[in-house]
Amino acid sequence: MKPNSNTEDVKNADHWILGLFYFNKNDQRLFPPKRFKYLGWTINFANPYSIFAYLILIGAVLGILYVLQNLSTFN
Description:
2 strands, two-stranded antiparallel sheet
């Protein structure tokens, strides 16, 4: 395996579903870079740990929003 194969896999159109969802069972990264690195990272939907991490992130954001909403109604 070449050292840059993960970067080449991200750019490979065969690993993208509908051009939006990255799905590559051979890539073990949780959050690989997007096709264009300046756009940030994406989720590898083939890795169950990345889906779990994504759900935890969404839960944390929703939890913070819930707490902030209740703090404003507490006063």
